Task: structure prediction
Amino acid sequence: MRTLLSRLAPLALALAGAACQGTNMYTVQDDVAMGAAAFDEVKASENLIYSGPQYEQVQRVTERVVDAAIELDPEISNLFAWEVVLIDNAEMNAFCLPGGKMAVYTGILPVAGNDDGLAVVIGHEIAHATRRHGTQRVTQGVLTEIGIEIFTEAAEFSTDQEERELATILAEVGLGLPFSRDHELEADRVGLFYMAAAGYDPREAVGFWQRMSAGGTGAPPEWLSTHPSDVTRIQKIQALLPEVMPVYQAAQISDS
Result:
C-alpha cells in the first residue's frame, strides 16, 4: 500500500506548476472591474477622511509615485484608473486592489513618519497592482483547488477527509504561502524603484520596516506567514539600495 507521501508526490508536482508566478486566468480589464467593485464596497463601509494635512499628504505622495509608475511601466500603469482614499482606522495597514484602487489607514502614517516613509508604503502597494498580484493569487488558489480535486480522486482517497485536509495544508504551506511571500518581496523591490523615480529617498525603507517591526506583535514564523519577516525584508532592501540609489539621485537632479 502506498504511503501518503508517495500518493502526494504527483500532487505536489502538479501544484508547483499551477502556482508558478505570472500565471493569471484574468485579463487586465478584469483587474480593473474587480478592483472597482471591491473599492465601492470599501468606500461605502469605511470611515473616510476627505480633508486635512494627512489627507493632503496621502494624495500628494500617491500622485507622485503613480506618475513614476506610469513612467517606468506605462504598458500596465496607463490602463488603471488610480485612486486612493484615507481610512480613519488605527490599524497599521494599507492595500491596493487590482486595477489601482488604494487605501491608506491613518494608523500607518505615524510609522511612515514623513513623505519618504509614506512613499515606501505607496510604492509597495502600487507595485502589487502593476505586477497584478491580486488576480495572480486568485488564480493560484483556483488551480490549487483543481489540483487537489484531481489527485485526491486519482489516488482514491478523496473520501478520507483527514487526508484531504492534510493535502490542502501541505499545498498551502509548501506553495501558497511562499507564493504570497514572493509577491511581497517583489512589491518591495518594484516599489523601491517607483519611489526613487518619484524623488523619494529609498533608504527610508529600512527605517520604515524597522519601525514596523518594533511596533508589531508576535508574528508567526516566516514559513507559516503570508509575509516575509521584517528582518528578511530589511536585508533584501539593503542589498537593493546600490541599484536603486542612482534612480533616486537622477530624480533629484531632474527636480533641481
Q: What stands out?
A: Confidence is low (pLDDT under 50) at residues 169-179, 220-225. The chain has ten helices and four strands.
